[in-house]
Design a protein that fits this description.
This protein has 227 residues and is an alpha/beta fold. The protein has a single domain, classed as P-loop containing nucleotide triphosphate hydrolases (Rossmann fold, 3-Layer(aba) Sandwich), CATH 3.40.50. The chain is 39% helix and 22% strand. The chain contains eight helices and twelve strands. A six-stranded parallel beta sheet has the order 2-7-1-10-11-12, sandwiched between helices. A hairpin with a 2-residue loop joins strand 8 (126-128) and strand 9. Helix 1 (15-28) runs parallel beside helix 2 (54-62) and helix 6 packs parallel to helix 7. It is globular, with a radius of gyration of 17 Å. The two termini are 24 Å apart.
């Protein structure tokens, strides 16, 4: 399985925005992409009564719209809370082994050249009483992409997240700062430099140009040629 596990410095920092951008860019470059958010809370029921996660729907469409059934998300939980809390409210227990198995089988059966697995919330968000997003990433063995805010507080949150991932023995492929229209680009640039002072890895800023992600995609897919 070739790809990335996408985590965030917090909830609502732009994980799905970055994951979708990676998926769209890879598809545009001619790759088969499996984009998977196995656990999502805050889901709603559609007219057919089926629970659907908004983030997973966006991911599946960004990957080409071919994913169906469990490949379009395993656990859709109504309560907008950490997976453990939302699962307990729904009276279920999340099976982490099933999540890992579905991710691996989905990547293999689809012959995906790039697999993107998006976590829920941040690195230490609990999935079961004994596991968290770090446990899922470790079981998958994928390099980690850290999605961070562009503005105030991001230096501390980003460096702490990177330190935790490295301490857990996983590779950090890149930090991607999600620059929203309301964010100050100059402040984001200063924050990026401060993060680089503390972690000499790849730190990129994503707004509307998905091509900025090409160095990250080339690490996973090989040299990038413009479509």
């Amino acid at each position: 399985m070739n790809g990335y596990f996408v985590t965030g410095t917090d909830t609502n920092v732009g994980k799905t925005f970055v994951s979708c951008a990676l998926a769209r860019r890879a598809v545009a470059l001619g790759h088969r992409v499996f984009a998977f958010k196995p656990i999502e809370s805050g889901c709603t029921a559609g007219p057919d009564g089926r629970w659907a996660g908004a983030d997973q729907e966006l991911l599946a469409e960004a990957a080409g719209g071919w994913q169906h059934g469990p490949l379009r998300g395993l656990y859709q939980l109504p309560l907008a809370a950490a997976p453990l809390v939302a699962a307990e409210a729904a009276g279920i227990v999340i099976d982490l082994e099933q999540v890992v198995r579905e991710a691996r089988e989905g990547a293999a059966s689809s012959r995906a050249s790039l697999t993107l697995v998006e976590g829920a919330g941040g690195w230490r968000v609990p999935i079961t009483p004994d596991t968290d997003m770090a446990s899922l990433a470790s079981a998958l063995g994928l390099p980690v992409v850290v999605v961070a805010r562009a503005g105030l507080g991001t230096i501390n949150h980003t460096v702490l997240t990177v330190e935790a991932i490295l301490r857990d023995g996983l590779a950090v492929a890149a930090v991607v700062m999600s620059l929203r229209p309301e964010d100050d680009p100059e402040a984001c640039a200063r924050n990026r430099l401060e993060i680089l002072r503390r972690w000499p890895g790849m730190v990129m800023v994503l707004s509307s140009d998905q091509a900025v992600l090409d160095p990250l995609l080339s690490d996973a897919l090989g040299p990038i040629a413009s479509p």
